[in-house]
Amino acid sequence: MTTFPDGFLWGAATAGHQIEGNNVNSDWWAREQTMPGMELSGDAVDSYHRYAEDIRLLAESGLTSYRFSLEWSRIEPVRGHFSKAELAHYRRMIDACLEHGVTPVVTLQHFTTPQWFAALGGWDSPDAEALFCAFVEQACTILDGVEWVVTMNEPNMQAAIMTAMRHLAASGGDWTSPTVEAEGDDEKKQQHGQFLTYADPEIGRMFTRIHHAARAIVRERTNAKVGWTIAAGALTAAPGGEEKLLQIRYGKEDVYWEGSRGDDFVGVQAYSSQQVDANGLVPHPPHPDNTLVGTAFRPDSLAMAVRHAWEVSEHTPILITENGIATADDVQRIRYTTAALEGLAGTIADGIDVRGYLHWSLLDNFEWGHWEPTFGLISVDRDTFARTPKPSLAWLGKVAARNGFEATEFAA
Ligand code: IFM
């Protein structure tokens, strides 16, 4: 039997723009309308209205934690105008969790920003820190009883997008989804492989400053543990790629793991592993087990990421805030998660302080420009919004209820 520490959180994660629908004031909404090749978020899966059902399904499965995000562009649709009604909406979500005995993990910013913020230059604006902090102060007014707060989701992915957008603007290239690998010939794949290869470490230092300012506000005004969540690439060096690995990983990750030193926890988000050679990231070679976002089936990436985060963050406690697989095959999802959890148990046995595991995602949702990659434990009919739990939800709920599992019991 593989077991986990007492009080270990077991849950699932989502993000506002990917599930709520009609976030018409967000920068992503605007981008979807104009970027070629992007599908629209539209009504998404209408979780804005159906959150109570979503939280109930999560709780009934046996899971004990729900990570969701506040949508800044709903709360502050116009600069300086904070909507009390929208704040009350998110407070109702927190209350729905607490009523079901579910521990809410609240993300203050998950990729999207208000359009007015983007128009000022977004995170590049000299006012970015003050503007985000003003929002964080308002958010803190609804966080009573919340134990876990994430200031920002994957600032390192946001930095990689910002770096790529600067290069695209300079070269007049095409945008593709940040999380879905390009299809087609090797040259196109190679270009996409390089698309989000680099993140300027200066952007990482800017995000760290803003994160620390937000962290101070959350600490002053709430009793929550506070941290941020980082996209972990579980990168390894191909022969000859050792130096390039260090260079790429610093801007894409390590500057952020360093920035989490002194936090109450750091969120680790891992899905796959990738090699770096002397030229940069090596695109995932074609394989029948590749996921619907084109990445390799690498459940071992979770343990690799945890070990790296633990070392570079200088032993900051870890919460797995995302891990999962884009697949239409739910048996494959269970197989992947079983292996990922076995690896995670190994890191705990080695003394790493891991506090919980939140699967990505509770619901099939809008994968930033694409609907085909399904990461959910629950599928959703996008016409009726009817929810259908997949076997993986009951499976993970049972793992949660027993705080462990027999590997052979579940692996198909
Ligand atoms: O859907 C995303 C999420 O918003 C951030 N982390 C990775 C997920 C899967 O690509």
From TrEMBL:
UniProt keyword Membrane present: no
Protein name (Swiss-Prot/TrEMBL): Family 1 glycosylhydrolase
GO MF, any single term: beta-glucosidase activity
GO cellular component: cytosol
One Pfam family it belongs to: Glyco_hydro_1
Keywords: Glycosidase, Hydrolase
InterPro entries: GH, Glyco_hydro_1
Position of the signal peptide: none
One of the protein's GO biological processes: carbohydrate catabolic process
Family as reported in the entry's similarity comment: Belongs to the glycosyl hydrolase 1 family.
Top-level division of the source organism's lineage: Bacteria
Keyword Ribonucleoprotein in record: no
